[in-house]
What does this fold into?
Amino acid sequence: MSEAAISFRQVRAPLAGSASHLQLDLQIAAGQFVALVGPSRSGKSLAIEMAAGLVLPQSGKVMVLGQDWSAVEGADDGPVRLRVGTVLQQPGLLSNMTLFNNVLLPLRYHRGAMPDREREQAVMDQLERLGMASLRDRFPAELNQGEIRRGAIARSLMLEPEVLLLDDPVAGLDADMVLVLKQYVGARRQLRPLTVVAALRSFSPFIEGADRLVVLQEGRVVADGSLESVGSTVPSSLRHYVG
Amino acid sequence: MLRPSADPCRTLVALQVMLPYNFTVTQGAEAVAGSLLLLSGGGGAHLMIEWVGRKTIAGYAYLAALATLFVQAVLDLLSPGRQGRRETLRVLTRQILFTGVDALPVTSVIALLLGIIIVTQAGTQLPRLGAGGLVGSIIVITVIREIGPLITAFIVVGRSGTAIATELGNMSVTREVVALRLMGIPISQFVVMPRMVGMVLSMLCLTFYFDVVAVFGGYLVADAQLTIPFSAFVESVTRALSTTDLLMTAIKGFGFGSAVAAVCCYHGLAVRSSYTEVPQQTTRAMINSFVLCLLVDVVVTVPLYL
It folds into this structure.
Protein backbone atom coordinates (compact mmCIF):
# COMPACT_ATOMS: atom_id res chain seq x y z
CA MET A 1 0.00 0.00 0.00
CA SER A 2 1.32 3.48 -0.84
CA GLU A 3 1.88 6.20 1.77
CA ALA A 4 -1.23 7.56 3.48
CA ALA A 5 -2.59 10.70 1.86
CA ILE A 6 -4.81 11.38 4.86
CA SER A 7 -4.31 10.08 8.35
CA PHE A 8 -6.38 10.59 11.47
CA ARG A 9 -4.07 9.61 14.34
CA GLN A 10 -5.86 8.94 17.62
CA VAL A 11 -8.17 11.83 16.83
CA ARG A 12 -10.76 12.89 19.36
CA ALA A 13 -13.15 15.82 18.88
CA PRO A 14 -16.53 16.79 20.34
CA LEU A 15 -19.56 16.18 18.16
CA ALA A 16 -21.79 19.26 17.90
CA GLY A 17 -25.27 18.68 19.32
CA SER A 18 -24.25 15.44 20.99
CA ALA A 19 -22.59 14.36 24.23
CA SER A 20 -20.34 11.90 22.44
CA HIS A 21 -16.99 12.46 20.76
CA LEU A 22 -15.66 11.50 17.38
CA GLN A 23 -12.84 9.02 17.88
CA LEU A 24 -10.99 8.21 14.73
CA ASP A 25 -7.81 6.33 13.91
CA LEU A 26 -7.81 6.01 10.15
CA GLN A 27 -5.25 5.88 7.36
CA ILE A 28 -6.35 6.63 3.81
CA ALA A 29 -3.90 5.64 1.09
CA ALA A 30 -3.08 7.92 -1.81
CA GLY A 31 -5.46 7.32 -4.70
CA GLN A 32 -8.04 5.57 -2.54
CA PHE A 33 -11.76 6.41 -2.67
CA VAL A 34 -13.21 6.15 0.83
CA ALA A 35 -16.89 6.59 1.62
CA LEU A 36 -17.72 7.60 5.19
CA VAL A 37 -21.21 6.29 5.81
CA GLY A 38 -23.52 6.58 8.76
CA PRO A 39 -26.50 8.31 10.31
CA SER A 40 -26.65 12.03 11.09
CA ARG A 41 -24.45 13.21 13.99
CA SER A 42 -22.14 10.25 13.61
CA GLY A 43 -19.13 12.46 12.87
CA LYS A 44 -18.84 12.23 9.06
CA SER A 45 -18.98 15.97 8.41
CA LEU A 46 -16.66 16.67 11.32
CA ALA A 47 -14.15 14.22 9.86
CA ILE A 48 -14.36 16.03 6.50
CA GLU A 49 -13.96 19.44 8.18
CA MET A 50 -10.95 18.17 10.12
CA ALA A 51 -9.39 16.76 6.96
CA ALA A 52 -9.98 20.16 5.33
CA GLY A 53 -8.22 21.89 8.23
CA LEU A 54 -11.29 23.86 9.26
CA VAL A 55 -11.60 22.25 12.67
CA LEU A 56 -8.72 20.98 14.77
CA PRO A 57 -9.10 17.92 16.98
CA GLN A 58 -9.14 18.15 20.75
CA SER A 59 -6.39 15.55 20.79
CA GLY A 60 -4.57 13.55 18.17
CA LYS A 61 -3.35 14.67 14.79
CA VAL A 62 -4.82 15.01 11.31
CA MET A 63 -2.26 14.82 8.51
CA VAL A 64 -3.15 15.58 4.90
CA LEU A 65 -0.47 15.14 2.23
CA GLY A 66 2.12 15.37 4.97
CA GLN A 67 0.66 18.60 6.35
CA ASP A 68 -0.33 18.74 10.00
CA TRP A 69 -3.12 21.30 10.08
CA SER A 70 -2.46 22.12 13.73
CA ALA A 71 1.03 23.30 12.74
CA VAL A 72 -0.37 25.92 10.38
CA GLU A 73 -0.01 29.45 11.74
CA GLY A 74 -2.05 32.45 10.63
CA ALA A 75 -4.55 32.73 7.81
CA ASP A 76 -2.27 31.27 5.16
CA ASP A 77 -2.68 27.50 4.98
CA GLY A 78 0.34 27.06 2.77
CA PRO A 79 0.70 25.21 -0.51
CA VAL A 80 -1.12 22.08 0.69
CA ARG A 81 -4.41 23.98 0.62
CA LEU A 82 -4.30 24.12 -3.17
CA ARG A 83 -3.71 20.35 -3.36
CA VAL A 84 -6.95 19.67 -1.48
CA GLY A 85 -10.35 20.26 -3.06
CA THR A 86 -13.25 20.46 -0.63
CA VAL A 87 -17.01 20.74 -1.00
CA LEU A 88 -18.92 21.08 2.26
CA GLN A 89 -22.60 20.42 2.91
CA GLN A 90 -23.22 24.06 2.06
CA PRO A 91 -21.19 24.31 -1.15
CA GLY A 92 -20.68 28.09 -0.92
CA LEU A 93 -20.86 29.14 -4.56
CA LEU A 94 -20.35 32.91 -4.57
CA SER A 95 -23.79 34.44 -4.98
CA ASN A 96 -22.58 37.50 -6.93
CA MET A 97 -20.94 35.40 -9.66
CA THR A 98 -22.39 33.26 -12.41
CA LEU A 99 -21.79 29.53 -12.38
CA PHE A 100 -19.09 29.99 -15.04
CA ASN A 101 -17.26 32.66 -13.04
CA ASN A 102 -17.55 30.63 -9.86
CA VAL A 103 -15.85 27.65 -11.47
CA LEU A 104 -13.33 29.95 -13.13
CA LEU A 105 -12.40 31.78 -9.90
CA PRO A 106 -9.70 29.36 -8.60
CA LEU A 107 -7.96 29.49 -11.99
CA ARG A 108 -8.24 33.26 -12.20
CA TYR A 109 -6.82 33.64 -8.72
CA HIS A 110 -4.10 31.00 -8.69
CA ARG A 111 -3.24 30.61 -12.38
CA GLY A 112 -2.93 34.24 -13.38
CA ALA A 113 -0.36 33.45 -16.08
CA MET A 114 -2.65 30.96 -17.84
CA PRO A 115 -4.15 32.40 -21.04
CA ASP A 116 -7.80 33.45 -20.68
CA ARG A 117 -8.97 31.24 -23.53
CA GLU A 118 -7.28 28.18 -22.02
CA ARG A 119 -8.83 28.83 -18.63
CA GLU A 120 -12.29 29.35 -20.06
CA GLN A 121 -12.01 26.21 -22.15
CA ALA A 122 -11.02 24.22 -19.05
CA VAL A 123 -14.09 25.49 -17.22
CA MET A 124 -16.43 24.72 -20.11
CA ASP A 125 -14.99 21.19 -20.36
CA GLN A 126 -15.86 20.53 -16.73
CA LEU A 127 -19.32 22.04 -17.02
CA GLU A 128 -20.05 19.97 -20.12
CA ARG A 129 -18.96 16.76 -18.42
CA LEU A 130 -21.34 17.50 -15.58
CA GLY A 131 -24.16 18.42 -17.96
CA MET A 132 -24.19 22.06 -16.91
CA ALA A 133 -22.84 23.93 -19.94
CA SER A 134 -26.24 25.48 -20.67
CA LEU A 135 -26.38 26.88 -17.12
CA ARG A 136 -23.07 28.74 -17.35
CA ASP A 137 -24.55 32.24 -17.10
CA ARG A 138 -26.95 31.48 -14.27
CA PHE A 139 -26.34 32.83 -10.78
CA PRO A 140 -26.46 30.41 -7.82
CA ALA A 141 -29.90 31.73 -6.83
CA GLU A 142 -31.19 30.52 -10.21
CA LEU A 143 -29.83 26.98 -9.78
CA ASN A 144 -31.28 24.08 -7.86
CA GLN A 145 -29.48 22.38 -4.99
CA GLY A 146 -28.05 19.61 -7.13
CA GLU A 147 -26.77 22.02 -9.76
CA ILE A 148 -25.10 24.15 -7.10
CA ARG A 149 -23.44 21.05 -5.66
CA ARG A 150 -22.18 19.87 -9.05
CA GLY A 151 -20.90 23.37 -9.77
CA ALA A 152 -19.03 23.40 -6.47
CA ILE A 153 -17.50 19.98 -7.21
CA ALA A 154 -16.35 21.21 -10.63
CA ARG A 155 -14.86 24.30 -8.94
CA SER A 156 -13.05 22.20 -6.35
CA LEU A 157 -11.38 20.17 -9.12
CA MET A 158 -10.20 23.10 -11.23
CA LEU A 159 -6.77 23.25 -9.60
CA GLU A 160 -6.23 19.49 -10.18
CA PRO A 161 -6.07 18.63 -6.46
CA GLU A 162 -4.59 15.38 -5.16
CA VAL A 163 -7.25 15.04 -2.48
CA LEU A 164 -10.99 15.60 -2.90
CA LEU A 165 -13.16 15.93 0.21
CA LEU A 166 -16.91 15.77 -0.38
CA ASP A 167 -19.55 16.21 2.29
CA ASP A 168 -22.85 14.76 1.14
CA PRO A 169 -22.06 15.07 -2.59
CA VAL A 170 -25.32 13.46 -3.76
CA ALA A 171 -27.67 15.69 -1.74
CA GLY A 172 -30.25 17.20 -4.07
CA LEU A 173 -29.11 15.16 -7.08
CA ASP A 174 -31.57 13.06 -9.05
CA ALA A 175 -30.72 9.41 -9.80
CA ASP A 176 -29.30 10.20 -13.24
CA MET A 177 -27.11 12.95 -11.89
CA VAL A 178 -25.76 10.68 -9.16
CA LEU A 179 -24.56 8.34 -11.91
CA VAL A 180 -23.13 11.27 -13.88
CA LEU A 181 -21.25 12.42 -10.79
CA LYS A 182 -20.01 8.89 -10.09
CA GLN A 183 -18.69 8.62 -13.65
CA TYR A 184 -17.19 12.11 -13.45
CA VAL A 185 -15.25 11.35 -10.27
CA GLY A 186 -14.24 7.95 -11.68
CA ALA A 187 -12.95 9.56 -14.88
CA ARG A 188 -10.96 12.12 -12.88
CA ARG A 189 -9.39 9.31 -10.85
CA GLN A 190 -8.40 7.49 -14.03
CA LEU A 191 -6.87 10.64 -15.46
CA ARG A 192 -4.55 11.22 -12.50
CA PRO A 193 -4.23 9.91 -8.93
CA LEU A 194 -6.96 11.40 -6.77
CA THR A 195 -7.72 10.49 -3.16
CA VAL A 196 -11.44 10.88 -2.53
CA VAL A 197 -13.18 10.99 0.84
CA ALA A 198 -16.95 11.33 0.60
CA ALA A 199 -19.37 11.54 3.54
CA LEU A 200 -22.78 10.04 2.76
CA ARG A 201 -25.80 9.83 5.00
CA SER A 202 -27.68 7.21 3.02
CA PHE A 203 -26.93 4.46 0.54
CA SER A 204 -26.40 5.72 -2.99
CA PRO A 205 -25.02 4.28 -6.24
CA PHE A 206 -22.19 6.77 -5.69
CA ILE A 207 -20.89 4.44 -2.95
CA GLU A 208 -20.38 1.68 -5.51
CA GLY A 209 -17.44 3.64 -6.90
CA ALA A 210 -15.67 3.58 -3.51
CA ASP A 211 -12.72 1.30 -2.77
CA ARG A 212 -13.48 1.32 0.91
CA LEU A 213 -16.41 2.00 3.19
CA VAL A 214 -16.02 3.29 6.73
CA VAL A 215 -19.24 3.08 8.72
CA LEU A 216 -19.57 5.51 11.61
CA GLN A 217 -22.00 5.51 14.50
CA GLU A 218 -21.96 8.01 17.37
CA GLY A 219 -18.41 9.03 16.54
CA ARG A 220 -16.90 5.55 16.33
CA VAL A 221 -15.95 3.36 13.40
CA VAL A 222 -18.18 0.30 13.52
CA ALA A 223 -17.18 -1.24 10.19
CA ASP A 224 -14.35 -0.69 7.74
CA GLY A 225 -13.71 -2.55 4.50
CA SER A 226 -14.76 -2.97 0.90
CA LEU A 227 -18.43 -2.71 -0.09
CA GLU A 228 -18.63 -6.50 -0.31
CA SER A 229 -16.92 -7.25 2.99
CA VAL A 230 -18.43 -4.50 5.11
CA GLY A 231 -21.96 -5.86 4.68
CA SER A 232 -21.16 -8.79 6.93
CA THR A 233 -19.43 -6.81 9.68
CA VAL A 234 -21.72 -3.80 9.96
CA PRO A 235 -24.31 -3.89 12.79
CA SER A 236 -27.73 -4.96 11.54
CA SER A 237 -29.22 -1.57 12.51
CA LEU A 238 -26.91 0.11 9.97
CA ARG A 239 -27.07 -2.46 7.20
CA HIS A 240 -29.32 -0.30 5.00
CA TYR A 241 -26.55 2.32 4.86
CA VAL A 242 -24.31 -0.02 2.89
CA GLY A 243 -26.82 -1.42 0.42
CA MET B 1 -4.05 28.39 17.88
CA LEU B 2 -7.69 27.86 17.15
CA ARG B 3 -9.24 24.80 18.69
CA PRO B 4 -12.72 23.35 18.22
CA SER B 5 -14.16 25.27 21.14
CA ALA B 6 -17.62 24.75 22.58
CA ASP B 7 -18.77 27.19 19.94
CA PRO B 8 -17.48 25.96 16.56
CA CYS B 9 -18.98 28.99 14.79
CA ARG B 10 -16.65 31.24 16.73
CA THR B 11 -13.78 29.10 15.53
CA LEU B 12 -15.00 29.51 11.96
CA VAL B 13 -15.37 33.25 12.24
CA ALA B 14 -11.90 33.45 13.73
CA LEU B 15 -10.62 31.37 10.85
CA GLN B 16 -12.25 33.74 8.41
CA VAL B 17 -10.41 36.88 9.38
CA MET B 18 -8.00 35.94 12.15
CA LEU B 19 -9.72 38.20 14.61
CA PRO B 20 -8.06 38.21 18.01
CA TYR B 21 -10.20 35.47 19.48
CA ASN B 22 -7.22 34.07 21.38
CA PHE B 23 -8.28 36.50 24.04
CA THR B 24 -11.90 35.89 24.92
CA VAL B 25 -13.78 38.96 26.01
CA THR B 26 -15.90 37.16 28.58
CA GLN B 27 -12.98 35.45 30.29
CA GLY B 28 -11.06 38.71 30.53
CA ALA B 29 -14.04 40.61 31.83
CA GLU B 30 -14.72 37.94 34.41
CA ALA B 31 -11.14 38.02 35.63
CA VAL B 32 -11.22 41.79 36.14
CA ALA B 33 -14.72 41.75 37.60
CA GLY B 34 -13.68 38.96 40.00
CA SER B 35 -10.76 41.02 41.27
CA LEU B 36 -12.98 44.04 41.78
CA LEU B 37 -15.55 41.90 43.58
CA LEU B 38 -12.96 40.83 46.10
CA LEU B 39 -12.10 44.47 46.73
CA SER B 40 -15.68 45.68 47.01
CA GLY B 41 -16.69 43.08 49.58
CA GLY B 42 -20.04 42.00 48.12
CA GLY B 43 -23.59 43.39 47.76
CA GLY B 44 -25.48 44.75 44.74
CA ALA B 45 -22.43 46.72 43.70
CA HIS B 46 -20.94 43.42 42.59
CA LEU B 47 -23.22 43.15 39.64
CA MET B 48 -22.63 46.74 38.64
CA ILE B 49 -18.86 46.41 38.85
CA GLU B 50 -18.98 43.14 36.96
CA TRP B 51 -21.12 44.72 34.26
CA VAL B 52 -18.84 47.75 33.93
CA GLY B 53 -15.76 45.52 33.83
CA ARG B 54 -17.30 43.28 31.20
CA LYS B 55 -18.39 46.18 29.01
CA THR B 56 -15.07 48.02 29.31
CA ILE B 57 -13.00 45.02 28.31
CA ALA B 58 -15.43 44.15 25.54
CA GLY B 59 -15.04 47.70 24.22
CA TYR B 60 -11.26 47.48 24.22
CA ALA B 61 -11.36 44.04 22.59
CA TYR B 62 -13.69 45.42 19.92
CA LEU B 63 -11.35 48.32 19.13
CA ALA B 64 -8.41 45.88 19.10
CA ALA B 65 -10.26 43.67 16.61
CA LEU B 66 -10.95 46.67 14.35
CA ALA B 67 -7.31 47.72 14.57
CA THR B 68 -6.24 44.17 13.67
CA LEU B 69 -8.46 44.21 10.59
CA PHE B 70 -7.09 47.59 9.55
CA VAL B 71 -3.44 46.65 10.09
CA GLN B 72 -3.91 43.37 8.22
CA ALA B 73 -5.49 45.25 5.30
CA VAL B 74 -2.56 47.70 5.23
CA LEU B 75 -0.08 44.79 5.26
CA ASP B 76 -1.98 43.09 2.45
CA LEU B 77 -1.93 46.32 0.47
CA LEU B 78 1.79 46.88 0.99
CA SER B 79 2.80 43.29 0.29
CA PRO B 80 0.16 41.73 -1.94
CA GLY B 81 0.58 38.04 -2.65
CA ARG B 82 1.93 36.89 -5.98
CA GLN B 83 -1.40 35.30 -6.81
CA GLY B 84 -4.75 36.91 -7.43
CA ARG B 85 -3.69 40.52 -8.00
CA ARG B 86 -5.99 40.94 -10.98
CA GLU B 87 -8.93 39.43 -9.12
CA THR B 88 -8.29 41.63 -6.09
CA LEU B 89 -8.05 44.66 -8.35
CA ARG B 90 -11.37 43.69 -9.88
CA VAL B 91 -12.99 43.64 -6.41
CA LEU B 92 -11.34 46.98 -5.58
CA THR B 93 -12.62 48.57 -8.80
CA ARG B 94 -16.15 47.35 -8.12
CA GLN B 95 -15.97 48.77 -4.59
CA ILE B 96 -14.81 52.18 -5.84
CA LEU B 97 -17.55 52.22 -8.48
CA PHE B 98 -20.21 51.36 -5.93
CA THR B 99 -19.01 53.48 -3.01
CA GLY B 100 -17.59 56.40 -4.94
CA VAL B 101 -19.02 56.80 -8.43
CA ASP B 102 -22.55 55.56 -7.71
CA ALA B 103 -22.76 57.86 -4.69
CA LEU B 104 -22.12 61.01 -6.73
CA PRO B 105 -25.78 61.87 -7.47
CA VAL B 106 -27.01 61.61 -3.88
CA THR B 107 -23.89 63.37 -2.60
CA SER B 108 -24.42 66.20 -5.11
CA VAL B 109 -28.03 66.75 -4.06
CA ILE B 110 -27.30 66.70 -0.33
CA ALA B 111 -24.20 68.90 -0.68
CA LEU B 112 -26.03 71.43 -2.86
CA LEU B 113 -28.98 71.68 -0.50
CA LEU B 114 -26.75 71.92 2.55
CA GLY B 115 -24.69 74.69 0.95
CA ILE B 116 -27.90 76.58 0.14
CA ILE B 117 -29.26 76.18 3.68
CA ILE B 118 -26.04 77.24 5.43
CA VAL B 119 -25.45 80.32 3.27
CA THR B 120 -29.12 81.29 3.52
CA GLN B 121 -28.93 81.16 7.32
CA ALA B 122 -25.54 82.83 7.48
CA GLY B 123 -26.43 85.44 4.89
CA THR B 124 -29.58 86.50 6.72
CA GLN B 125 -28.28 86.31 10.31
CA LEU B 126 -24.72 87.61 10.06
CA PRO B 127 -25.55 91.10 8.64
CA ARG B 128 -27.70 91.73 11.71
CA LEU B 129 -24.57 91.28 13.79
CA GLY B 130 -22.55 93.41 11.41
CA ALA B 131 -20.60 90.39 10.22
CA GLY B 132 -21.94 90.03 6.71
CA GLY B 133 -18.44 89.62 5.32
CA LEU B 134 -17.96 86.35 7.18
CA VAL B 135 -20.04 84.27 4.79
CA GLY B 136 -16.89 82.76 3.30
CA SER B 137 -15.53 81.89 6.73
CA ILE B 138 -18.81 80.28 7.71
CA ILE B 139 -18.74 78.11 4.59
CA VAL B 140 -15.15 77.06 5.26
CA ILE B 141 -15.61 76.37 8.96
CA THR B 142 -18.95 74.65 8.85
CA VAL B 143 -18.88 72.85 5.53
CA ILE B 144 -15.25 72.19 4.61
CA ARG B 145 -13.92 71.58 8.10
CA GLU B 146 -16.82 69.89 9.81
CA ILE B 147 -20.12 69.12 8.15
CA GLY B 148 -18.76 68.15 4.74
CA PRO B 149 -16.61 65.22 5.91
CA LEU B 150 -19.19 64.12 8.48
CA ILE B 151 -22.21 64.17 6.16
CA THR B 152 -20.15 62.41 3.47
CA ALA B 153 -19.24 59.73 6.00
CA PHE B 154 -22.90 59.32 6.97
CA ILE B 155 -23.88 58.99 3.29
CA VAL B 156 -21.18 56.35 2.76
CA VAL B 157 -22.21 54.47 5.90
CA GLY B 158 -25.86 54.47 4.85
CA ARG B 159 -25.16 53.44 1.27
CA SER B 160 -22.02 51.32 1.24
CA GLY B 161 -21.20 50.46 4.84
CA THR B 162 -24.50 48.73 5.38
CA ALA B 163 -24.18 47.04 1.98
CA ILE B 164 -20.76 45.65 2.93
CA ALA B 165 -21.99 44.40 6.31
CA THR B 166 -25.03 42.76 4.70
CA GLU B 167 -23.04 41.22 1.86
CA LEU B 168 -20.37 39.78 4.13
CA GLY B 169 -23.01 38.63 6.61
CA ASN B 170 -24.85 36.71 3.92
CA MET B 171 -21.54 35.32 2.65
CA SER B 172 -20.78 34.05 6.14
CA VAL B 173 -24.16 32.35 6.53
CA THR B 174 -24.00 30.64 3.15
CA ARG B 175 -20.39 29.65 3.93
CA GLU B 176 -19.02 31.49 0.92
CA VAL B 177 -16.34 32.90 3.22
CA VAL B 178 -15.27 29.38 4.21
CA ALA B 179 -15.44 28.28 0.56
CA LEU B 180 -12.99 31.06 -0.37
CA ARG B 181 -10.62 29.89 2.32
CA LEU B 182 -10.93 26.32 1.07
CA MET B 183 -9.94 27.55 -2.40
CA GLY B 184 -6.79 29.05 -0.90
CA ILE B 185 -8.06 32.61 -1.33
CA PRO B 186 -7.18 34.69 1.76
CA ILE B 187 -10.22 36.53 3.13
CA SER B 188 -8.20 39.49 4.32
CA GLN B 189 -6.60 39.93 0.91
CA PHE B 190 -9.55 39.19 -1.35
CA VAL B 191 -12.49 40.43 0.74
CA VAL B 192 -11.40 42.91 3.41
CA MET B 193 -8.46 44.79 1.86
CA PRO B 194 -10.13 45.83 -1.43
CA ARG B 195 -13.26 46.95 0.40
CA MET B 196 -11.20 48.96 2.87
CA VAL B 197 -9.00 50.58 0.21
CA GLY B 198 -12.01 51.23 -2.02
CA MET B 199 -13.89 52.86 0.80
CA VAL B 200 -10.98 55.05 1.93
CA LEU B 201 -10.29 56.29 -1.61
CA SER B 202 -13.98 56.87 -2.28
CA MET B 203 -14.46 58.65 1.03
CA LEU B 204 -11.52 60.98 0.34
CA CYS B 205 -12.76 61.88 -3.13
CA LEU B 206 -16.39 62.20 -2.09
CA THR B 207 -15.46 64.48 0.82
CA PHE B 208 -13.68 66.96 -1.44
CA TYR B 209 -16.46 66.64 -4.02
CA PHE B 210 -19.06 67.34 -1.32
CA ASP B 211 -17.17 70.46 -0.21
CA VAL B 212 -16.96 71.82 -3.74
CA VAL B 213 -20.64 71.23 -4.48
CA ALA B 214 -21.72 72.66 -1.11
CA VAL B 215 -19.66 75.80 -1.72
CA PHE B 216 -21.26 76.05 -5.16
CA GLY B 217 -24.71 75.71 -3.56
CA GLY B 218 -23.74 78.48 -1.19
CA TYR B 219 -22.69 80.65 -4.12
CA LEU B 220 -26.09 80.15 -5.81
CA VAL B 221 -27.79 81.65 -2.76
CA ALA B 222 -25.16 84.32 -2.35
CA ASP B 223 -25.66 85.33 -5.95
CA ALA B 224 -29.46 85.16 -6.12
CA GLN B 225 -30.54 86.21 -2.64
CA LEU B 226 -27.65 88.15 -1.15
CA THR B 227 -26.44 89.65 -4.43
CA ILE B 228 -22.84 88.84 -3.66
CA PRO B 229 -20.92 88.66 -6.97
CA PHE B 230 -19.06 85.50 -7.89
CA SER B 231 -15.60 87.08 -7.58
CA ALA B 232 -16.35 88.46 -4.11
CA PHE B 233 -17.76 85.11 -2.98
CA VAL B 234 -14.76 83.19 -4.25
CA GLU B 235 -12.38 85.68 -2.70
CA SER B 236 -14.20 85.45 0.61
CA VAL B 237 -13.98 81.64 0.60
CA THR B 238 -10.37 81.42 -0.54
CA ARG B 239 -9.32 84.03 2.02
CA ALA B 240 -10.87 81.95 4.77
CA LEU B 241 -9.54 78.66 3.41
CA SER B 242 -6.12 77.51 4.58
CA THR B 243 -3.89 74.54 3.82
CA THR B 244 -4.73 73.25 7.29
CA ASP B 245 -8.41 73.10 6.35
CA LEU B 246 -7.65 70.99 3.29
CA LEU B 247 -5.31 68.79 5.29
CA MET B 248 -7.92 68.31 8.00
CA THR B 249 -10.50 67.37 5.39
CA ALA B 250 -8.13 64.81 3.92
CA ILE B 251 -7.25 63.37 7.34
CA LYS B 252 -10.90 63.11 8.25
CA GLY B 253 -11.77 61.48 4.94
CA PHE B 254 -9.03 58.91 5.49
CA GLY B 255 -9.96 58.34 9.14
CA PHE B 256 -13.69 58.04 8.47
CA GLY B 257 -13.14 55.72 5.51
CA SER B 258 -10.86 53.41 7.49
CA ALA B 259 -13.17 53.36 10.50
CA VAL B 260 -16.34 52.71 8.50
CA ALA B 261 -14.72 49.97 6.40
CA ALA B 262 -13.21 48.21 9.41
CA VAL B 263 -16.45 48.36 11.40
CA CYS B 264 -18.63 47.15 8.52
CA CYS B 265 -16.27 44.32 7.49
CA TYR B 266 -15.95 43.24 11.13
CA HIS B 267 -19.71 43.09 11.72
CA GLY B 268 -20.35 41.38 8.39
CA LEU B 269 -17.83 38.67 9.16
CA ALA B 270 -19.07 38.37 12.74
CA VAL B 271 -22.33 36.83 11.49
CA ARG B 272 -22.21 33.18 12.48
CA SER B 273 -24.99 30.90 11.48
CA SER B 274 -28.34 32.60 11.00
CA TYR B 275 -29.84 35.04 8.51
CA THR B 276 -31.52 36.88 11.40
CA GLU B 277 -28.05 37.93 12.56
CA VAL B 278 -27.45 39.79 9.30
CA PRO B 279 -29.78 42.78 9.97
CA GLN B 280 -28.70 42.81 13.62
CA GLN B 281 -25.03 43.06 12.71
CA THR B 282 -25.79 45.56 9.94
CA THR B 283 -27.57 47.82 12.42
CA ARG B 284 -24.65 47.53 14.83
CA ALA B 285 -22.25 48.30 12.01
CA MET B 286 -24.20 51.43 11.11
CA ILE B 287 -24.53 52.78 14.66
CA ASN B 288 -20.92 51.97 15.58
CA SER B 289 -19.72 53.56 12.35
CA PHE B 290 -21.53 56.80 13.21
CA VAL B 291 -20.11 56.79 16.74
CA LEU B 292 -16.59 55.98 15.58
CA CYS B 293 -16.73 58.71 12.91
CA LEU B 294 -17.69 61.27 15.54
CA LEU B 295 -14.93 59.95 17.78
CA VAL B 296 -12.38 60.27 14.98
CA ASP B 297 -13.72 63.77 14.28
CA VAL B 298 -13.18 64.81 17.90
CA VAL B 299 -9.69 63.28 17.98
CA VAL B 300 -8.72 65.13 14.80
CA THR B 301 -10.47 68.45 15.45
CA VAL B 302 -10.02 69.18 19.15
CA PRO B 303 -6.18 69.27 19.17
CA LEU B 304 -6.35 71.93 16.48
CA TYR B 305 -8.08 74.35 18.86
CA LEU B 306 -6.08 73.54 21.99
Notes: Chain B touches chain A through 35 residues (CB under 8 Å).
